[in-house]
Every structure is written in C-alpha cells, then in structure tokens.
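Usage

Read records sequentially. Each one opens with the input sequence:
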Amino acid sequence: MGLAGWLLGSAGAFAAAVALLWAFQERAIFPVRHAAVPPTAQGPWQVGEVELPGHGAVRFRYADGAGPVVLYFHGNASSTVAASGYAGFLLDAGLVAVLASYPGYSANPGAPSEAALQATAEAMEAWARARWPGRPLVAWGESIGTHPAAHLAGLGRADALVLDSPFTSVADAAAKHFPWVPGVRRLVRHRMDNLAALRAMPRRIPALVLVTAKDPVVPVVMGERIAAEVPGAEMLRSPLTAHPVAVFDGEVARAAAAWAKAVVSPLGLEPRTP
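and closes with the structure output:
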C-alpha cells in the first residue's frame, strides 16, 4: 500500500471512530444496566413517584426517618434499587434517604439525558421538600449523579452538597479518555458542566468532595479542582483505587454521612414521627 492509500485508510478509520463516538455516546454515558429492575418496597425502603413532563412517572426508593434529608443521585452504572443495597450508611447516621432514579433507569419510562437528570433533580427536590417540610436537604451525588446534585446547588435548592468522585464536566472527562480525537469536547451532547453549575451557586453552602487515591474512571484531579473552586469546600480522600468512593469505602462513606448530618442539623429540623 502506498503512502496515499495509507493516509486514506487512516483518515477513514479516524472518521469511523469519530462517527461511533457521536452515535453511541449515550450507551457509554448511560449504560442503563438495571433498566429491567423496578423499585419495590423492601425492608426500610418505600417507593415514591414523581411526574416528569415528557417522560412520565419516575419511581424511586426512599427510607423515612426523623433526621435531615439526603437526596442521593446514583451513578450511571447503578440504580435506585442497587443504591439501596449500599446506602445503609445514610440510615445508620440517622438521615432520611431518598434514592433518586432517572428516566430509562429501573424500568422507568423515557430516556436519560443531561436535561432529564436536571429535571429529575428539580422534581425530586420539590417532592422531598413537600414530604418533609422544614427539613434541611443535602444533595449527594456519585459519579454521573454529581451533575444533578451540582445542578440543585447552582439553583440554590440544596442546603449542603456532597460530591463523590465528581468530574468538572463530561466534556472534560471525554477529552481525558479520548485525547487522540481533536475537538472531542464538541462531540459531547451531554456536557454536564459541574464547574459552571457550582460557580452559579447564589449562596455559600457546606460542601464535601470525596475522592480516591486513584480513580479508574474520573481523574482525581477533577475532584480536587472542584474542591478548590467551591468556597469552603472540604475533601475526604479514600486510600483505595476505586470509583465511586461510597460504593467501595464504607469508612469514608460513614464519615461523609456523619459530616452531612452535622453541618445541616443546626439549620433547623421540624420533628416528625415517621
């Protein structure tokens, strides 16, 4: 094969790779691994429902209690059902746990997207405020779930924030994973710019960033940058190589839950018998 043929072949392969990135990015960002497992009541977990225009009724699990409320946004490879298997540390800390779900996950109608995650966050925050009036609310996100959590904080609709293994933006993460694709940021349809959301926060709230010693999915430096840019943010670092922190490091997860309860409890709590 001559040089011209080699160049044409290389250009064709590159164009094909770019086309695949464009066409199949939803499958990478939202693998929807647990789509066929709907949430049901089990043990302390009850089932709630919010209506999302354009999607339908989104069902999720929650556990009642007498403490502050944690609105927990799971990662893209998890679900409200899967999260209830490892989120017991929230209940052990005396927190109400609302395990958000997304369109297309846990047998819910619709399809996940940046806009769908943001709409879910807003609807579930409103649901939780109505369900537990007067309770402080912590927006807690893991991995892809850090975006709806950051979105709420940017709107001034969270009283505290926990970001577990956060990315600065999906576009930034794509650039790290595909450095050989020029302009890869422009190919990303679901940008989920966490830094932009956090810079828009109308007020300062307690914030905690969780990172691992080495993260195989999201560069740790992204979490460090977020912690550095959010005023007053604290950081907890797990010694593990893992993603996200709370799924694999129970000690750090429990410490983060204790932090969340401590920082929001002085904000006011309306006693209620579950």
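Summary fields computed downstream for this record:
- The chain has eleven helices and eight strands.
- The chain has one domain: 3-267.
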